[in-house]
## 1
Amino acid sequence: MKKRSIVPYGPQHPVLPEPIHLDLVIEDEKIVEAIPSIGFVHRGLESLVQKRDFNQMVYVAERVCGICSFGHGFGYCEAVEKIMGVEVPGRAKYLRTIWFELSRLHSHLLWLGLLADGFGFENLFYQCWRIREKVLDVLELTTGGRVIFSVNKIGGVLKDVDEDMLAAVKDMLDKIELELKPIVKTFREEKTVRSRLDGVGVLTKQQAHDLGCAGPFARASGIKSDMRKMGYAAYGELDFDIITSDVGDSYARCDVRIGELFQSISIIRQAIEKLPTGDIAVPVKGNPDGEAFIRIEQPRGEAVYYVKGTGTPFINRMRVRTPTFANLAGLCETLKGADYADVGLLILTIDPCISCTER
Amino acid sequence: MAVMKFIPTALKNLFSKPVTTGYPFEPAVFPERARGHISIEIDSCIGWGMCVKACPLGALTVDKLKGTWEINRFDCVVCGYCVEKCPKKCLSVQTGYQTPGADKQKALYTKSPEVLKAEEEKRKEIVRKAAEAKKAKENGEK
């Protein structure tokens, strides 16, 4: 038997955007096993939820994470609305869909940039983030925040969008669609990029299924699962397909996310086209009494929200199962047999969001 | 699969203008809705403390008698919930960020002396009227 050694990886590492710690058991340069440990940014959301009333909690929920912020606020609102039997107006549903897809766009562009940075392509990294900046500008124009929007409330949304803003969104989409072409071409066709991604960290469909992976990570392994198809918000009325790949390697994950970029652009265009007129919120009376379980598709995968109210202004229990938590098991599987040099890249391919995971 | 696919983009960027704003030499431009900081028209404030109860961070303090409104800018995340809850709409979200400071001082806003004096007189008037009403009631009972 070859000599085995354990190398600690993270929580502070140049390639990691967020603190996750892995104990890597290695033989020469090959990983035999990876043991993850998290808990460096735990903030105690489950206790906090009992000390803030259910309206204030919207603002706390969306600050669980800086990148998936809209999804968290949205998931929490959906859950409380389900408990209270509130029917959100059509315009609010469409606005939520538009903002959700814009946040998916900026999240995926951020990830593409980080991936490029992960394999050492600095210029490509900045190109991705330059395009992302345009999405952030539009988000700031329509909501007032660049990454934390604070537009959700129980019963609808807080801010309406006028024609000029919608024109700005459409204009931005046209521009970034053009600008994305050379970037996407580089990811898909450039030999230096493909040599780092092809065949690295393969996860088969069976493994992805058994380990309960979620989101683009699972879709890249051929699992056709997208919570948007369940039809929450306005997704039921919009036309889109689930993007999957059968390969399951790092390139497939990159390819699926690139496909989802263009899919998001198409969904936003459809939503703007169909945006109904009317109220953006309905008044909500009383306190939540009961429990609800909501599944939504975050940029990183399926997120689950469980909220339980007891008829007081304070929520009794709130549980968030985030996609990164589901994907950690899959990550450890992909790391087995990988080269030590690919570890950083492989961690990035699950699009880790540790702040979400630890809440 | 090809090589050097990125060269045209890289060259194009080399000869184009920077996409970033040359702050601080150029002023930062914010859209109208940008949530920069919370501001108050202190003289319209009635000191009910709805904002204090609403604030998820506990960054606000109100003293009705002294006519003060205090915000800890380091705690405030500019979520705008206090603005939504304010009954007199004297709170608002403004664009532009606060200037950085060396010490963690709270920002204290006090009502102007004229407004404070007027409020004091109003309070005295109410107390006087209440006392008169009580007296009248007692006399009536007798």
Note: Residues 90-118 of chain A form the longest helix (29 residues).
## 2
Amino acid sequence: MGTIDFYLEVLIPALNKGFFLSVAIIVPSATFGVLIGILVGAGRALGKGWLSRALDLYVTVFRGTPLVVQLTVWYYGLPSISLFLEAHFGEGVRPFSELFRLSPYVAAVVAFSMCSGAYQSEYIRGALLSLKRGQYLAALSLGFSKGRAFWFITVPMALRRAVPGCGNEIIYLIKYSSLAMLVTLSELMGEAKGVASLYFRYFECYMLVALYYLAIVTVATVLLHMLEKRLARPFATGH
Amino acid sequence: MAGPMARGAPDGAPLLEVRGISKSMGGKLLLDDVSLSLSRGELKVLIGPSGGGKSTLLQCVHFLTIPDKGDVLLDGESAREMGKRNICLFRQEIGMIFQDFNLFDHLTARDNVAVALRRVKRLRKAEAHGRALAELERVGLGDKAGLYPAQLSGGQKQRVSIARALAMDPKVMLLDEPTSALDPELIGEVLNVIQSLYEGGMTMLMVTHQVGFARHITKEILFMEDGRITERGSPEDLLAEGSLSRAGAFCSKLSEVTGR
């Protein structure tokens, strides 16, 4: 097979297929990651006692262990719980025990969301802590309840400060989504590897897949930049 | 609204009454049995050295900080006896002006004023915006409605914060060193707004180091030190040449430093 044919008929169609699966993994993972980050970041910045300690533990675990390990635990490790439950409680627990048998896709999205959420929470927490308490007090003085002051005043100010950091984490997520290959998903990296070993054309396949990732990251960067610009306010330094 | 004529009206009950407030934080007694009262349309000035408890007192009067002991009565209603929900209504009826403005820096001047109208008073957008513009006009900033806090001078920021408080129709205003963070040339514009509020009949409790302004605007100065009001009296009595009061000594030292 000639080089041109190989590209047009094998490699590019395969990578395009992988591309759509990659996007289908990245978009929900990034969304859940940000949502988890907001909840966990707010809980850690403002919470007290056991709640804040439990959230600290979550961040310690998910930031402190390799993502590959987390991903394999979600996919290969959890079904052991199903086996254990079924062995001890009989087939009756199946509807429940089945919950621990994640599909490769669900395992990947859960793993990436949980890991990303741990990092995102750090950006959100930092942004919340950087705000002056005075503005929150001012809101209370106007008759806002604590909850509404937080939601309508603190959150919009904190999110603006957190956007650059959160964007950065989303860019990371795009790249580490390539690990989904390890739980049998034929996303971009999985397709590239499959074609490469089948045709013994490692260099071309991996170079081209690199370009695909570069393209996704570039588009994401532009979108994040637009968001940042839209949210931008003239902030004075210091205040 | 009560006009200047109603000032100090002899109808008996004061509009704002602070009864024996004490507050400790971190093992330190910040307020020690502080009482004061304001009649409708009255302005009292609170002076004293930093760390003397003035800001804590204002926050306790507002129930932004809950005092350990004592109570605050606004129009005869006890803050202590209000539930969690009603304390927001209590706070809404008292306007607070902070030393460093505390404007919401992601909102324009108009939205700084409108946000509480919409989210607290639940006015419709157009209505809230209209009211916000009217309040900005009142402090002379109608043309700055679309600017963000970072684009305003210190004096303009403080006037926006005054407009923001006024929009909630407060019965009393608490001003915590409203001009201390301002460059000297910007102080006048803020004091002018405060003066015109006073002339309009607003009841105010003001912490300030502007001795000259205090002297001509108030009938009673409260001197606060170590968490207690240690002296109170008319500016003539406390600040007269040769007066032996702590307040007099403090203010003459201030005037030496600032030249005012």
Note: The mean pLDDT of chain A is 93.
